[in-house]
Fold this sequence. Notes:
Blueprint lengths: L5 E2 L16 E2 L15 H8 L3 H8 L7 H13 L6 H8 L4 E6 L5 H16 L3 E6 L4 H10 L6 E4 L6 H7 L6 E4 L9 E5 L1 H14 L5 E4 L6 H17 L6 E3 L5 H12 L7 E4 L2 H14 L8 E3 L16 E3 L2 H17 L8 E4 L2 E3 L8
Parallel strand pairs: 3-4, 3-5, 5-6, 6-7, 7-13, 8-9, 8-10, 10-11
Antiparallel strand pairs: 1-2, 12-14
Amino acid sequence: xxxxxxxxxxxxxxxxxxxxxxxxxxxxxxxxxxxxxxxxxxxxxxxxxxxxxxxxxxxxxxxxxxxxxxxxxxxxxxxxxxxxxxxxxxxxxxxxxxxxxxxxxxxxxxxxxxxxxxxxxxxxxxxxxxxxxxxxxxxxxxxxxxxxxxxxxxxxxxxxxxxxxxxxxxxxxxxxxxxxxxxxxxxxxxxxxxxxxxxxxxxxxxxxxxxxxxxxxxxxxxxxxxxxxxxxxxxxxxxxxxxxxxxxxxxxxxxxxxxxxxxxxxxxxxxxxxxxxxxxxxxxxxxxxxxxxxxxxxxxxxxxxxxxxxxxxxxxxxxxxxxxxxxxxxxxxxxxxxxxxxxxxxxxxxxxxxxxxxxxxxxxxxxx
Length: 368
């Protein structure tokens, strides 16, 4: 272990000042003490016996370094616990190695899965993730975009609140953007979307084919694009498969609480629906709780279905029939597209991909 030389103060007479002299510490070698200053790139170069420029090339993964030199530099950096300055690296590479993600919310399993999918692909590429939420407000969405100026190399944007004009006005100049589940597919940006309309149509058709005549729908936020597409799928299926059947639409906001409120209202109806199709699984789980409190059995009294197939959907009782959205894959695909645009500036064109939603039949709509 390295030692420190301490210069002891000379004895003082009582007549001297009562202020105590501070002991002077001789400089210790890099890494000798946890309180020592962090190692610098010059320290690494000195210990590895190479130039600062060579260390810089190793840190920035340049190809013009021999394997032996790279190994020596990495060993020295590890011994000194050297952490490269991200600011300095950015000046050289003009990259922050950070991806920004603007989402409408961060609460719940849907967004947890989406972020997980983005993060898995980002980490595989050595990229960091900066996540922000618009909290359901167009002004907060714009502020979040502005806050990312200069801090990210590209942006993933999932926001039902921004139109083309406000998006363009608040995006960092020249930063690649990929949209996720947004109506702005024609805004000149690459986009990924789930076929929410087809998924909702397929679920409503499934309920009709099981003999249900009165099918209720619990919708999502009024200004949410996904919610609108799922409601549209329900309505178009009813119009085609049960013409003349009245719609039974209840308000929701994609939270368990709103599903519970709608479920409580449905349970009190004199004439209940045969089936309830919820605009997402979180509301279906809240609705299931309300039915249990009211003594309404699922599926014996009312069939229940959701949308998204979040991980917990298969573990509730009864397991939830739902529409599967491969949420993590959606985030991962969007990240890969964005990374490609960052690596090939000016050579990538806007591409639009729609992901298929799948019907998953479980016990909440009855056996079989």
